[in-house]
Amino acid sequence: MFRLVIASFVLAMSTLPLRAENLQVAVFAGGCFWCVESDFDSVQGVTETISGFTGGEMENPTYNGSHAGHYEAVQITYDADVVSYDQLVYAFFRSIDPLDAGGQFCDRGFAYKTAVFVDDAQRAGAEAAKAQASRDLNAQVVTEILPMAVFWPVEGYHQNYHNTNRARYEYYRNGCRRDERVLALWGDAAPFASH
Q1: Mean per-residue pLDDT over the chain, rounded
Q2: Which among 80, 40, 87, 66 is positioned nearest to 152, based on CA atoms?
Q3: Neighbour tally for 142: CB within 10 Å
Q4: Handedness of CA 130, 110, 150, 166 (dihedral sign)
Q5: 144-147 and 103-104: which strand pairing?
Q6: What pLDDT, on the 0 to 100 scale, is given for residue 43?
Q7: Closest by alpha carbon to 116, among 135, 130, 134, 101?
Q8: How confident is the model over 98-135, as pLDDT tens digits?
């Protein structure tokens, strides 16, 4: 059942309409922003992904400087006529370990915690997706649903890292055992994890 839902909108490198008409923005914190960006770049209807920081009070956070109090996150621009917010947030929960309160995979600490940043229109969909994930796993999901905050893009060399530094990206993702843990939790419902 989950495979059918996911397969209906996750199509790697699909052809998009010539002009997106109904652009919307979602913001997800799922541990390493390289991995979240890579995952959602493969979704039909996603027109842009930007890695960065959000949720903190510090202005102009940087990766090599300070980003204390911020989550690593990805700002996802999508055409809502092609893929819905509900589909995106459903896939997001199945691309992370939503039971881990201390970070994600090999990355530990506040910056790597999971969260969904929402505006008023997105809140109900995010809460419903979180509740469904909890039911599906029969466990308490610790991923927070937080108000949308200022999003600060990270330095340019982190953007599209999965394309510009493919070997290092794959070494990192495999070394962190991200896909291994996601598959252990979600099995065939995991839309992005490699078997």
Answers
A1: 89
A2: 66
A3: 16
A4: negative
A5: unpaired
A6: 97
A7: 130
A8: 999 999 999 999 999 999 999 999 999 999 999 999 99
The catalytic site residues sit at: 32
Closest-CA residue to 84 (of 46, 114, 41): 46
Write down the domain spans for the chain.
Answer: 2-8+21-187
CATH architecture for residues 2-8+21-187: 2-Layer Sandwich (3.30)
**pTM of the predicted structure, to 2 decimals:** 0.88
Instruction: Compute the radius of gyration of the chain from its Cα atoms.
Output: 15
Q: 114 is written with which tokens?
A: 């999971």
Which residue type does 123 have? R
Q: What is the 3-state secondary structure (H, E, C) of 30-99?
A: ECCHHHHHHHHHCCCCEEEEEEEEECCCCCCCCCCCCCCCCEEEEEEEEECCCCCHHHHHHHHHCCCCCC
Strand partners, 147: 118
Q: How confident is the model at residue 68 (pLDDT cuts 50, 70, 90)?
A: confident
| pLDDT above 70 for 7 | no
CA–CA distance, 148 with 20 (Å, rounded to integer): 23
Nearest alpha carbon to residue 75 among 148, 11, 145, 144? 148
